[in-house]
Design a protein that fits this description.
The protein is an alpha/beta fold. It is built from 10 helices and 8 strands. An 8-stranded parallel sheet has the order 1-2-3-4-5-6-7-8. Helix 8 crosses helix 9. Bound molecules: nickel (II) ion.
Length: 268
């Protein structure tokens, strides 16, 4: 299906998609074509463990100038990581396709990984990102203050380059993340009927710190909620909702958030 927003956007950037998911095994070429038709100029392919990080690099390598990789071990995958998986991430960090470190972060919702192990892996990602001057891609679920606490000492060395991905916190938490130097990215949840509070947060984020994403294959935005798997082209719906809440045209919004993403991820 061609996006209904084809005419509205010249520029859009899906900053977070798990295109290595098996859901796309047969549909990837069509999905990428639909993304271009919807106005997307780039998509970040996000690794969540050593295997998907390697796949993300391969995928980005075969679509230069359109797909970019980020590499990392997501907190819920950290417990299952083999001893040498972290070494793989460290090596991949210098791959020319890589534009970010993550996803990483902390998660209090799922109980897959002991808390100390999550904190240890988060710390490794923070240090690795700083070493290579790459942005962090941060996952947060029900642990906003713990994320801020762990990042704060690192902000002593200057603003933290990175993004809070699929942000769902309140304004107070958002403000703390902005103060650390982070950008804020919103996914499909901001379009849901009951997400009025989140839309208010999205409307208050300074324009130069705002990003959009799909977090594909998860959580399709309205009016496609429940239609699985989600796809990068659908970021147009999320962008339209936030643009409306800020009184901007979709085209202006797409242009501004794409410029932000290019700046953060070092994409020309
Ligand atoms: Ni993700």
């Amino acid at each position: 299906m061609i996006s209904p927003h084809t005419q509205e956007y010249d520029l859009l950037y899906d900053t977070h998609a798990h295109l290595t998911d098996s859901a796309y095994a047969a549909t990837l070429p069509r999905l990428l074509e639909d993304a271009r038709l919807a106005g997307l100029v780039a998509i970040n392919v996000i690794g969540f463990d050593a295997a998907t990080s390697r796949q993300a690099c391969r995928l980005a390598d075969s679509h230069p100038g359109f797909l970019y990789a980020t590499v990392g071990i997501q907190p819920n995958s950290a417990a299952a990581a083999a001893a040498d998986d972290w070494d793989s991430i460290v090596k991949l960090a210098t791959d020319p396709t890589v534009r970010g470190i993550g996803e990483t972060g902390l998660d209090r919702y799922w109980d897959d990984t002991p808390w100390e192990v999550q904190q240890d892996y988060f710390e490794r990602h923070i240090v690795l990102a700083r070493r290579h001057d790459l942005p962090l891609v941060i996952h947060m679920r029900e642990c906003g203050q713990e994320i801020v606490s762990q990042l704060t000492p690192h902000a002593a060395g200057g603003p933290i380059r990175g993004v809070m991905h699929s942000f769902t916190g309140d304004w107070s938490l958002c403000k703390q993340c902005l103060d650390l130097g982070l950008m804020i990215s919103f996914a499909g949840m901001v379009t849901f009927k009951k997400s009025g509070d989140l839309r208010e947060v999205a409307a208050k984020v300074p324009l130069e710190s705002l990003l959009v994403e799909t977090d594909s294959p998860y959580l399709s935005p309205e009016p496609l909620r429940g239609r699985r798997p989600n796809e990068p082209a659908r970021v147009s719906h999320t962008a339209a909702v936030i643009a409306a809440s800020r009184g901007m045209s979709p085209a202006e919004f797409g242009e501004a958030t794409t410029a932000n993403a290019k700046r953060l991820f070092g994409v020309d």
